[in-house]
Amino acid sequence: MMISDAIEDEDKWLAEGIAGIQHNAFYMHRALDSDNLREALKYSAQLLSELRTSRLSPHKYYELYMRAFDELRKLEMFFKEEERHGCSVMDLYELVQHAGNVLPRLYLLCTVGSVYIKSKEAPAKDVLKDLVEMCRAVQHPIRGLFLRSYLAQISRDKLPDIGSEYEGDGDTVMDAVEFVLQNFSEMNKLWVRMELQGPARVRDKMEKERNELRDLVGKNLHVLSQIEGIDLDLYKETVLPRVLEQVVNCKDELAQYYLMDCLIQVFPDEYHLQTLETLLGACPQLQPTVDIKTVLSQLMERLSSYAASSPEVLPEFLQVEAFAKLSAAIGKVIETQGDMPVVGAITLYVSLLTFTLRVHPDRLDYVDQVLGSCVKILSNKPKLEDSRATKQVVALLSAPLEKYSDIVTSLTLSNYPRVMDHLDSGTNKIMAMVIIQSIMTNQACVSSADKVDVLFELIKGLIKDLEGDSDDELDEEDFNEEQNSVARVIHVLYNDDPEEMLKIICTVRKHIMTGGPKRLPFTVPPLVFSALKLIRRLQNQDGDVAGEEDPATPKKIFQLLNQTIEALSYVPSPELALRLYLQCAEAANDCDLEPVAYDFFTQAFVLYEEEIADSKAQVTAIHLIIGTLQRTNVFGVENRDTLTHKATGYSAKLLKKPDQCRAVYACSHLFWVDDQDGIKDGERVLLCLKRALRIANAAQQMANVTRGSSGPVTLFVEILNKYLYYFEKGNPQITSAAIQGLIELIKTEMQSDTATPDQISDAFFACTLRYIQFQKQKGGAMGDKFDTIKV
């Protein structure tokens, strides 16, 4: 209620002030029209007396000031026309000083002073000095600021600058600089004094009002930057020291932040670069509460843009040692402001790193130095819990990845992993994903074991459980994505030198084996396949390589693989381990290493026996074993017999009869390998097929007993197809009579009363018969062979 009353009162006072100005402006206009100087001065002074109020806020006072300002412009036009008022400008300058009140007197004096300078009847520097000194008579902050703002406004185009009509006859650029600096200094004092006025309860309101007035003070710095005569030397020797002196000595948080920001924005980047030491030297002297990180960040941003805009200026940055000065200044600021939050310190170093990457991208020692400074900041603190600070650390770590598309460059930075160690578990994973994304996007190649070691240390958040990890928080989909990303990284690690590649594989193994049961099923397979790729490059190398203490040979790598896959069987993930053992067995076969291949098959069978209990998994596993064994040709008779006997034995022991049947007839391929040196044991093929037929018969009978119908004849048709395959391949044990008998059996089963109609089985059988018919019609030896089968 009190606030709304105060606003209403202010509006009323503003309305009264505007009414007073309008009333006196009317009579002033009438006096101007009749060229009556005395009346014009009388009413203009009364009009300006309305600005003596202390009741209005800066925002409302500005409205009143603008009304008076418009009237003063008309009065100035009148003062310029001497023939109208008949008074010389010098006399006029004396005359207006007789106004009764100081504020109207000074506004009139500034207005006449503008005309006086323009007339050139007196040196500009004398008039300006007189005006800036006399304005000290008004010490009320708001009234004084607007008065001096008016002085700055009417004088800005009348300063004795280079190329200006007011230069010469003793008037120099230095006079213009002195005037603006003095006005700036006095305005800043008035502005700062506002903060000290009023009780604590209205401090917030005062702060807001002060913010509204800041542009009046900053305008002086803008005027300074527009003076053509201020060259680098003058700026370095006079302007910057004087401005900084005022900034530091005012000891006001708002003023210091705003004026430092203003200084950086209005003067040229080249000047900042050449006066970096002076500018940065003021930063630690500012109040501890000043947001110096934003000021310095803006300075570094401007200098970065300056360097990027023109490559020719880069030597200047080295010449002035910009990086060293900025780095030292940031350290001094952090040291001075002992209670600066971590987020503030890290933000400063993010800006410094951005500056370094843009200005000195080739100086990795600078980049590492910035990261090292961050490590010092973070090492004094516990684990980061502030989300803003964490975000800044991620920005810090991401910057080198974005700049150097080659991840290897970032891996040479010794302090990079040390910064990552200070991230919490969740953010560590996010950063690890960013690193992996960078590798995949840029198709970077990490080709040395040392670099791989550093890389996996960086992404350890994805490879093993870190302190503070919680299984409850783990989303399965996110976890799978993370582990698949690690797997992708393993696939892109490569070196042409087999020795170095083996070291890389050993390094990766060292890291991923700490991953625990959830991660190993994702990370072991890519490692195994990477090792198998290396084995194929080294194929047929078995002996020691001359001059190598620890040569990379297939045997050695297979030993490593055996130990690695064994870890999966303990996880447990037996189906995956079995698949990998079989892949290794096939690779050992290609390398002509019979004992190694036999050992891998043995491991696969042990897993099948002891670990795989699920019936579906058993079916898949036995077919994988049969398929792999069929492709191997390294075994002698004894070893092969042992393995094929095992495979056929396990096939016949599967839980479901149809699965038994299919596995047993698949085993027939172990005794008939259709290549030049392949095994061709027709009798054992026939034994397998007959055994499969018996199992199929048993399955039909069981179905008849339990369900009252014999079920479809699919198994018989499948066996028929196997008979036809071997018949076509020339197996002497497979006769047309056996095929004929099987066809008749299928037809009988299909016509049986207990048969279950099944369109798929019928279509399958019909297609098989059509195939026989097709072979007959082909003619030649194959046609004659099939001609004996009646369909």
From TrEMBL:
InterPro entries, per the entry: ARM-type_fold (IPR016024), Vps35 (IPR005378), Vps35_C (IPR042491)
Superkingdom per UniProt: Eukaryota
GO cellular component: cytosol; endosome membrane; Golgi apparatus; late endosome; retromer complex; retromer, cargo-selective complex
Entry annotated with the keyword Protein transport: yes
GO biological process: intracellular protein transport; retrograde transport, endosome to Golgi
Keyword annotations: Cytoplasm, Endosome, Golgi apparatus, Membrane, Protein transport, Transport
Compartment(s) where it occurs, according to its Swiss-Prot or TrEMBL record: Cytoplasm; Endosome membrane; Golgi apparatus, trans-Golgi network membrane; Prevacuolar compartment membrane
Topological relation to the membrane, as annotated: Peripheral membrane protein
Record's function text: Plays a role in vesicular protein sorting.
Family, per entry: Belongs to the VPS35 family.
Protein name: Vacuolar protein sorting-associated protein 35
Source organism: Helianthus annuus (Common sunflower)
Gene: VPS35B
